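[step 3/7] inverse_fold.run input=structure_tokens len=260
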């Protein structure tokens, strides 16, 4: 991961043939391969692309291509090999929140770590990054040309939770959808996401709520909470403040002030 900022204009070509590269614009203006980048949304570089950045702040994540292909094969139930991604796809909603959960988890570890990271841990973090990418961006093996539902147990569990983000669900519901025992599901999520299935679901819901509160389109905190499947407003406020350092009402007021 790297962060870059500039008060000028940068033009050139990006070569994304050796690694999978994802960029998200934090401020400014950018055009990648003829596509204007939205603020705060991950966009995938593909092959060689012409880019132009104007007075910008951006982050870039690079993931080893072989790791992405291996994780995709495990999730999809196919042999590892080159992938195609849905062109110009910009994730939204629950898949976008799942992406930001991955970024926050990895960034938190990187920023809190002193000294070298072991090769094994580096590979684990790269696999976690690949999981987040593949959740956010539709993909398939080269030549298939159509997205397939995930075949892995964890992939099915993730898809079930993201598809039912606004519905009260239990760990047994998720386990049944994934074709696993509850204990097996817990173990798998600890290995892949370093949290429990319901911990993952809660974190995605909180990030999705934040997206909606920051959008300027939300009318109330309670409406946003219900839209992401949160029914206990008191617990929501406490968990939101712990995650983001402010109450949801403060996020909403700031967004309304910005858009007024």
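[step 3/7] decode complete -> sequence:
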């Amino acid at each position: 991961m790297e962060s870059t900022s500039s008060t000028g204009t940068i033009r050139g070509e990006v070569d994304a043939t050796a690694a999978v590269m994802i960029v998200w614009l934090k401020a400014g203006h950018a055009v990648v391969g003829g596509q204007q980048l939205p603020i705060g949304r991950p966009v995938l570089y593909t092959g060689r692309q012409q880019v132009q950045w104007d007075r910008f702040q951006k982050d870039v994540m690079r993931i080893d291509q072989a790791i992405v292909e291996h994780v995709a094969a495990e999730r999809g139930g196919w042999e590892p090999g080159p992938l195609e991604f849905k062109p110009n796809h910009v994730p939204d909603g629950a898949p976008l929140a799942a992406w930001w959960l991955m970024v926050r988890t990895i960034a938190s570890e990187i920023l809190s770590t002193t000294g070298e990271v072991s090769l094994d841990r580096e590979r684990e973090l790269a696999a976690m990054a690949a999981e987040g990418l593949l959740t956010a961006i539709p993909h398939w093996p080269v030549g298939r040309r159509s997205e397939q539902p995930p075949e892995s147990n964890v992939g099915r569990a993730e898809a079930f939770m993201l598809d039912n983000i606004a519905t009260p669900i239990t760990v047994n519901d998720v386990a049944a959808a994934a074709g696993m025992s509850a204990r097996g599901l817990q173990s798998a999520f600890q290995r892949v996401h370093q949290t429990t299935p319901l911990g993952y679901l809660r974190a995605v819901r909180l990030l999705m709520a934040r997206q909606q509160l920051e959008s300027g389109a939300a009318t109330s905190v309670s409406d946003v909470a219900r839209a992401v499947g949160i029914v206990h407003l008191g617990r929501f406020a406490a968990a939101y403040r712990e995650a983001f350092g402010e109450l949801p009402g403060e996020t909403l007021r700031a967004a309304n002030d910005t858009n007024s």
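[step 4/7] annotate
The beta strands are 2-16, 19-32, 35-36, 43-44, 47-64, 83-85, 139-141.
The longest helix spans residues 93-112.
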